[in-house]
Amino acid sequence: MMICAAGAVLCGCSQKDPQLGKAPVDKIVKAMTLEEKAMFVIGMGMETPDNGQTAVVGTTEDLVPGAAGTTRAIPRLGIPSIVLADGPAGLRINPTREGDDATYYCTHFPIGTLLASTWNQELVESVGESMGQEVHEYGVDVYLAPALNIHRNPLNGRNFEYYSEDPIVAGKTAAAYVRGVQKNDVGTSVKHFAYNNQETNRTANDARISPRAQREIYLKGFEIVVKESDPWTIMTSYNKLNGTYTSQRRDLVTTVLRDEWGFKGTVMTDWYGGDDAAAQMHAGNDMIQPGRASQYDQIVNAVKNGTLDEADLDLCVKRILNLILRSPRFKGYAYSNKPDLTAHAAVTRQSALEGMVLLENKNATLPLKNVKNVAVFGCTSYDFIAGGTGSGNVNRAYTVSLLDGLKNGGYNVDESFKSIYEKYIAEETEKAKAANAGDPLAAFLPVPRPTEYLPTSAQIASAVKNNDLAIITYGRNSGEFLDRTPADFELSAQEKTLLKNVTDAFHRAGKKVVVVLNVGGVIETASWKNIPDAVLLAWQAGQEGGNSVTDILSGKQSPSGKLPMTFPVNLMDHASSKNFPMGGDAKIYFTERRVDVGEKDVDYTNYEEGIYVGYRWFDKQNMEVSYPFGYGLSYTTFDYSNPTVSNDGKTVTASVTVKNTGSFEGKEAVQLYVSAPASSLDKPVKELKAYAKTKSLKPGEEQTLTMTFATADLASFDESKSAWVVDAGTYKFLFGASSRDIRGEATAEVAAQETKVNDVLK
Ligand code: BGC
User: Fold this and answer.
1) Cis before residue 157, ω within 30 degrees of 0?
2) CATH superfamily to which 2-326 belongs
3) For position 60, what pLDDT does the model report?
4) Ligand 1 site: residues with CB under 6 angstroms?
5) What pairs with residue 638 in β-bridges?
6) Which position has the higher pLDDT, 747 or 3?
7) Phi, then psi, of 563 in degrees rounded to 5
8) What's the 57 CA to ligand 1 centre distance in angstroms?
9) H-type helices in 163-274, by residue range?
10) Helix/strand/coil (H/E/C) assignment for every residue in 372-436
């Protein structure tokens, strides 16, 4: 026995040992000792604060510095390590390396929410393809993305990584993303499976959810990705479901994911997720990342004392071996470390345009006309946000600020504010950092945004005099570990004062004001949206943000993004707000887990609203919203005609003709909602079933969009039968420009159908 050079693996190297890739996988598994298997299913470990290091959001130094993890090599069997790295707004690795002059920057693409706001699956696929190229060329094998947990509540700190309050938008967007990335022969890890809808106490929170809400809302998107894009891996979530960690639930990881949906790949934990390695193996959660010594002991002991069947462990080992076999590293891919960052900067700039949502545009303020000189207000204009924080951050070479974007677009920006803002932001940031100094989480949390700066009335007066227009940017940032707070949802008193002071002064002079929202999630808009002349929801658009915003403002392209979630009037209007943590305290520790003291929304969260998430709730209540799900303005107008639908019992086919009736070229995203006939089950007023986007239509041009989906997808989940049930009757198909702007309707008769599934997930 000896220690192999590649790692702390005990082995007895011998010529006769079967080699991965040459011998069948079963033979390799057979040749492994119990100890080797237990080592193999846990990752290579990672520094934690308790060993004096500070890296927690996944970094490893070997193979690809800054990657989140690696698998363990077993040289005697020809098994190499492969590399796993984050996602999802671009690859996250270290940009520089010790003793190396080269740089390893990655492209910061738009955040997930912006990609979902494009309602354009082809575009998302092409962005995924560029991301995957960076993954491949930087020597990474599995990209830990996409992330598609449901936007259950606006305050989830990681909503920016996720897509939508609707599972069809989430699932279709994620499937397109996976197809794009995997075109490069690298893997994805679809995360976080499942119900990871809050950050507060995320490693111990128990999500208590009915099987119906799970099947229809929280699992549906994952089901779509698995069936439509064949991801190489899935990452289980940190939280528990109805009392048991998701990574330890065999019904979730094996019965539903593999047996019902046909998933063929490998499952891994989230970093340090779960508390029982043997239970994870039995569940079919093949790989435990980043791995700790105690997990090795748990597995070996469980096999020895008979509580874990070695056959379960063998299956996990086999599935990791199959993953390694398809990896670029195993195939010996000679990566260049030189992805085409220039081409990808163009991809991120262009793709961001389609996900920005025009919320207000009084008197056709946008695109800008006769505007040359621009006064820019709001700290965020000078400190543009590319994306959120935590593992979803990307080490990019630069971020184009709004100021630079405007200048690049040929505008004269009033420079008199620049130094004032920059000095103010630097001072406020230092103060915020100092206030957080003792907090062990501080290094991983977003630095609080500066309190908004209020220019004096003399400063504003001079801005009015010297400029044709004012732009105010408001920013919000959030990320891993921490949920947002109700205060973060509202505009602050200073932000409101700034808006009033600037608009009053500019309007008096007959000049306009545009608000840009550089945010990662939903904020309050109802109380102030009518004050400025236009509001552009730019989201966090990646490293080219300032250029992308300018392209929209100047009319290089019409906005065509639509909201993948509702903007409520009040935060508490959401049904989920009754059962969501609002305290602004992470309640998590890195090396230990919080002791369960039964605190509501922290130790457990009741998903009391069931399936009534987002528009399903607002429609049921007939409640006023600030902006409905699916909403977004354009620089042109569209007319919908000839709505038709047919159903052959297997497939529903719906089509509608969309004509550009305005004077600006643009694209339109059409949403197909279904209203079911009366049923013994409580049903939403309507539910999205499909969507499509036109090509860029010239004024007067039209296009017929055809959308199809399986008739079986009209079903609701009946818990009493544990079955998906389609009721017989007349279904209404609604063609919407948004969920509250239905432009065409057709009906079809549908016969009853029932599909039984396993009675699990309780
Ligand atoms: C995050 C995952 C991420 C992993 C590795 C965890 O903290 O929840 O999304 O992939 O770290 O960095």
Assistant:
1) no
2) Glycoside hydrolase, family 3, N-terminal domain (3.20.20.300)
3) 63
4) 57-58, 68, 86, 144, 191, 270-271, 391, 480
5) 660
6) 747
7) -70, 125
8) 6
9) 167-182, 211-213, 220-229, 250
10) CEEEEECHHHHCCCCCCEHHHCCCCCCCCCHHHHHHHCCCEECHHHHHHHHHHHHHHHHHHHHHC
**For 73-84, what is the mean pLDDT?**
95
* Residue carrying the six token digits 């093949």: 286
Angstrom distances, CA of residue 568 to CA of 199, 362, 525, 629: 21, 21, 8, 10
- Is 329 exposed, middle or buried, given 0-12, 13-18 or 19+ CB atoms closer than 10 A? buried
Tell which residue, 34, 87, 760, has the closest CA to residue 391. 87
Decide if 270 is catalytic.
yes
Instruction: With both helix axes pointing from N to C terminus, report the angle between 121-137 and 341-355 in degrees, rounded to the nearest 10.
Output: 150
The pLDDT of residue 61: 58
How far is Cα 71 from Cα 82, in angstroms, rounded to an integer?
5
pTM given for the model: 0.96
Q: Is the pLDDT of residue 5 over 50?
A: no
Selecting among 270, 312, 551, 718, the annotated active-site residue is 270
| Domain ranges across the chain | 2-326, 352-571, 638-756
586 versus 667: which is more confidently predicted?
667
Sequence length of the chain is 762
* d(CA 198, ligand 1 centre) in Å: 14
List of residues 6+ apart from 390 with CB closer than 8 A: 57, 158, 444, 479, 480, 481
Which tokens in the block code for residue 525?
């808009």
* Mean per-residue pLDDT over the chain, rounded: 94
Select from 144, 149, 192 the residue to mutate for testing ligand 1; criterion: most ligand atoms less than 8 Å from CB. Answer: 144
Structure tokens at 229: 């894009």
* Closest C-alpha to ligand 1, atom 6: 271
Does the domain spanning 352-571 belong to CATH 3.10.450.50? Answer: no
CA 494 – ligand 1 centroid, Å: 35
pLDDT in tens, 688-743: 999 999 999 999 999 999 999 999 999 999 999 999 999 999 999 999 999 999 99
Structure tokens at 716: 């609701």
Q: What CATH number labels 638-756?
A: 2.60.40.10
